[in-house]
Amino acid sequence: MSISSEVISEQTRASVNIVRNTWPLSNIQALFDLPFNDLLFKAHTIHRENFDPNAVQISTLLSIKTGACPEDCSYCPQSVRYDTGLEREALMEVRAVVDAAKAAKANGASRFCMGAAWRSPKDRDLNKVTKMVEEVKALGMETCVTLGMLEDSQAQRLKDAGLDYYNHNIDTSEDYYSEIVTTRSYQDRLDTIDNVRSAGINVCSGGIVGMGEKTDDRAKMLQTLANMEHPPESVPINKLVQVKGTPLDGLDGTESIDSVEFIKTIAVARILMPKSQVRLSAGRSAMSDEMQAMCFFAGANSIFYGDQLLTTENPAESSDHKLFKRLGIHPATV
């Protein structure tokens, strides 16, 4: 049963101002049930109260170690279990990573994210990654890495190197998770986030939509994030990119997610986590300019910038420049 926008407005104010981290699932489901215009109005109002509505934070993501991951994440072309034609690449040298960061900064990125296809990093690999963090940080950029599962001591080493953000997505709801990943548990993901938070590193955690999950799964995923003791500072919302050779390739339209439902997911994320950056991540290449504009109105205020996200396609930088100019959007400053 849907709840009137007046009731939701009161519940939203109470949740945002008093008990923001204890959202009941029924309230989140009610947000998804709101008329589209009412939901967007509420989300945009909250967004405008907390951020410059015409500023978008720009991040660039680089794969610093590609392929041969032992995990079985059904969406991922980097899994060693799937034949996707992806060539394996060893961990990059520090200088090459720093050169890529310099180019990203020159093109307007304020945060440089480095991703490695590991289940979890070995200490010898972490030696090189911490050097990357130190040198990218010295460029005056925010730093982010995603390396798989972390022990608390590893998180502390990254913090000591100056890491600003650690990305570790929960992917979907706990109920649906086993349909997507079996080689690590949902609790494993939450434990890594706890280790990152305990080390004093900002958390970047979101999920992927359009993997055959239901609206309730999206609601539960956002509930898990919003009800953390400290919600993630950055919340990437990915739209599944179907990659040939992965188990999720070939989902039909009834199993994926349409534009309206995706925009609603962005809006609900903004309402539940008013202080977080909500990032349009994978899947933007398939989004029209109009769809992205609606996402920005609904509360998205961060994007990945550059023509590739790890191993999947992303809009060309020139396309993003044109879109920003058309919309009157400017890059957010650090």
Main sheet summary: 10 strands, parallel
Class from secondary-structure proportions: alpha/beta
Share of residues in strands? 5-15%
Whole-angstrom Rg: 19 Å
* Mean pLDDT level: 86
Low-confidence spans: pLDDT under 50, at least 5 residues?
1-20
Series of secondary-structure elements, N-terminal to C-terminal? HHHEHEHEHEHHEEHEHEHEEEHE
Helix content: 40-55%
Distance between the termini: 42 Å
Shape: globular
Helix segment tally: 12
Number of strands: 12
Quick tags:
334 residues, alpha/beta, ten-stranded parallel beta sheet, two-stranded antiparallel sheet, 12 helices, 15% strand
Layout of strands and helices, then pairs:
Layout: H1 5-17, H2 25-33, H3 36-50, E1 55-65, H4 94-106, E2 111-116, H5 123-137, E3 142-146, H6 152-160, E4 165-167, H7 174-177, H8 186-198, E5 202-204, E6 207-209, H9 215-226, E7 234-239, H10 259-272, E8 277-280, H11 289-298, E9 302-304, E10 308-309, E11 312-313, H12 317-327, E12 330-331
Parallel strand pairs: 1-2, 1-9, 1-12, 2-3, 3-4, 4-5, 6-7, 7-8, 8-9
Antiparallel strand pairs: 10-11
Helix pairs in contact: 2-9, 3-10, 4-5, 6-8, 9-10, 10-11
Would you kindly provide a written description of the structure presented here, covering whatever features stand out?
- By secondary structure, this protein is α/β, with parallel strands linked by helices.
- Helices cover 41% and strands 15% of the residues.
- It has twelve helices and twelve strands.
- The protein has helices at 5-17, 25-33, 36-50, 94-106, 123-137, 152-160, 174-177, 186-198, 215-226, 259-272, 289-298, 317-327, and strands spanning 55-65, 111-116, 142-146, 165-167, 202-204, 207-209, 234-239, 277-280, 302-304, 308-309, 312-313, 330-331.
- The strands form two sheets. Strands 1, 2, 3, 4, 5, 6, 7, 8, 9 and 12 form a ten-stranded parallel sheet that branches.
- α9 (215-226) runs parallel beside α10.
